[in-house]
Amino acid sequence: MLHRTIIRALAGVTVGFAMTGAAFAAELRYAHVGAEGDIQTIYAAEAAKGIAAATNDAVTVTVYPASQLGGVAEMVDGVKMGSIQMGHHDFASLARLVPEVAVFNAPFIYRDGEHALAATDPATSPALQAINEKLVAQGVRIIGRIYRGDRQISSNFPVKTPADLAGKPFRAVPLELWVSMVKGFGAIPTPVEVAELPTALMTGVVVGQENPLTMIASNNLNEVQSHISMTGHMRAVLAVFVNEEIWQGLPEDQRAAITKVLDDEARKSLQMAQEGEAELVEELKGRGMTIITEADGLDLDAFRDGVNKQIAEDFPDFTPLIEQIQAVN
């Protein structure tokens, strides 16, 4: 007996399954805001290929990078509604649904990249599993993560302490956690979408920003910034999330295949980030940027103290979650 169920997303994407006779087929739209050359863009492209191969082309993924389907808010809303089936961005982008999820992007929270991946593994992290239950109630599920690299400060003047940024407009990702962090830097948080960032830096709307070196290089921010301060204040881990109805509509074996592909690609992203940072430092030096490290007088303790104090003040509910994350081996 042939039984067919159809899930129609708002964009007209159809997911259908046949219990016998015909193979299950699904077409998923995957959106993100990353630019060409960024680790997150490579991740999404490779994940799409891997998912097709792992499911014998039963599940196909079409990736829409570089904000083609809208900014971060539009992407999150699209996944929640089902007009976009998958997406990825900082965990904090889902805070509009469950505020506590932003803790996974908290600055100075992870010991290293391996710890960051372990603490954000949907299959084994107790903290993430508890928050995922709340997200599922909102129609969204985290099914993977991407290690994008350590985030560093770039500016158009030397920055060695928070005092150097005092009273200056500094780009904040338009999310509450980033606004709080930039306050901890000593600067004036100025929300700017990533697509508008080069123009905002060029025109002086903001004097600096923070991102992994991959993003700084791929977006040619060296053309509008002169210095990089190697604060490593965030180990940038992005959440890969999916519409829950679509996810539950997939057969169990295909869900398992997809999560394995995403986990494999997560580990590749960590390796890529670790191997690429030293090369990127030299590349950006070659493009004329000045790199500032602790050996050059960068005061990491001052940044850590200022940011941690601000986060504790603005997000007191994070404290037990931070302790749980830091306890992960």
Task: Summarize the SSE layout with pairings.
Blueprint: E1 4-8, E2 14-18, E3 25-31, H1 39-54, E4 59-64, H2 72-81, E5 86-90, H3 113-119, H4 126-136, E6 140-155, E7 169-172, H5 176-185, E8 188-191, H6 197-203, E9 208-212, H7 213-218, E10 227-243, H8 244-249, H9 252-286, E11 290-292, H10 300-314, H11 318-326
Parallel strand pairs: 3-4, 3-5, 7-8, 10-11
Antiparallel strand pairs: 1-2, 2-3, 5-10, 6-9, 6-10
Helix pairs in contact: 1-9, 5-10
Uncertain residue segments: 1-22
Helix and strand pattern:
EEEHEHEHHEEHEHEHEHHEHH
Question: Per CATH, which architecture?
Answer: 3-Layer(aba) Sandwich
Percent of residues in helical segments?
A: 40-55%
The gyration radius over C-alpha positions equals: 20 Å
Q: State the secondary-structure class.
A: alpha/beta
CATH topology: D-Maltodextrin-Binding Protein, domain 2
